[in-house]
Task: structure prediction
Amino acid sequence: AQKITQTQPGMFVQEKEAVTLDCTYDTSDQSYGLFWYKQPSSGEMIFLIYQGSYDEQNATEGRYSLNFQKARKSANLVISASQLGDSAMYFCAMREGVSGTYKYIFGTGTRLKVLA
Amino acid sequence: EAQVTQNPRYLITVTGKKLTVTCSQNMNHEYMSWYRQDPGLGLRQIYYSMNVEVTDKGDVPEGYKVSRKEKRNFPLILESPSPNQTSLYFCASSPGTGTPSYEQYFGPGTRLTVT
Result:
């Protein structure tokens, strides 16, 4: 069954250090998309980064990069040079469906706390 | 400003009293979706719509109804709410099949309490 697993309920990182948030997925589709969203304490959902299943290079967006290992079915988010404003809940998500239907599945999230 | 709006933002109601949560987007997006967020469970998709008059079930559709009569609107209907539908609800939209990333734009959320 299609599934997203985030095994780290909570993490701490020192300001200015890098941190990796883990995400593994399971799907039988060949074509799928992987996303990371940030949810600050204010509650809104903020899109961070996207990786397509056929993309050969890892996606990067500023301080965010997605470490995509297709054979291991992992899509870890790397945040470099952590800032206090990075403290939030982070969700990994997958869009499945070749065409016609586009369901999204989210993981249970990782709460990141950046320490000064 | 491009946005997804939801109303109401907060709602307290009683068991069995029908309610509708509205969702509207001004980006001409084809794809719209509803999610509920519960502690420890992340976001779970309730229903989604690929376009006008095209809707399909997500992972947790029981107890909910949707309709897509116009491209911009995608209301969520709870015909007979129950306490287990107490949750934070998000509406989202996406450009659909023509955009490679299929990024979803989320509304601000609706916190529903059913007593």
In short: Chain A touches chain B through 25 residues (CB under 8 Å).
